[in-house]
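If you are new to this repository, start here. Below is one unmodified record pulled from the training split, so you can see the exact layout before writing a loader.
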Amino acid sequence: MLLAVDVGNTQTLIGVYAGSDLVSMWRIATNRASTADELRVSLIPLFESAGLRLQDIDRAALSSVVPQLTEAWRRAAADGAGADMVVCSAQTAGDLFCADYPDPAEIGADRVADSVAMRALYGAPCIVVDFGTATNIEVIDSAGRFIGGIIAPGLQTSAQTLFNNASKLPAISLEAPDHAIGTNTVEAMQAGIVLGEVDRVDGLLQRIFDQLGYRAPVVATGGLAPLIAKHSKLIDQVNPDLTLEGLRLIVEARSTHERSSQGGRS
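And here is the target side for that same chain:
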């Protein structure tokens, strides 16, 4: 079984695969101070709740945008399951990630994993919008190459900044109102924050189409993807497992390559 972990700035997505099937998935808060022991111990009740055992994990993969947690997760996987954790990058993705980009090494692990999954599942061209602490848009061109994208403040990040800096504005639930013109403070804020994010993403996607010279399928992922995609005119579908699927594909490709290399030895 495979343990796939996507560490974001705010939340961490944890998935367990049996072959190509995602059998369990959990979303927990990211704690930058977590030690390897704390991470390992936190996995045990999650696994038990799904009728799984940590000891049954024989492979592991990690996408992390929090450098101080990368080694902690590697040690947690090694100590808890004896699994060597593959850390996602443009290099470890190998042939699954083709980039027409000045410095592929600077591309974030989550962007690499998303792009690998998008190309494998949806072909080329394709675009992924990942709604997390940042809203990332990744572009795969018609030749199957990652050519870049957009990084913007995420919906929750923008909302929290507003709540923290406008003392007379209340913290509100993030949901779309029925109309753009708010008739009270809460509706006005929801229109500005949620519908504003919808229009921002749609506007950026249209600019991408104009630059490419063609339309491409758009898939949204991340915790807030369903909220925004429901109101977007350009997002075609939502895939909440996209980053984890990219990690699985990278591990599978590396395992296949290793078996092939060993089989070719005399």
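Two things worth knowing about this chain: The beta strands are 2-7, 11-18, 21-29, 59-64, 85-87, 126-131, 134-140, 146-153, 218-221, 237-238. The mean pLDDT is 94.
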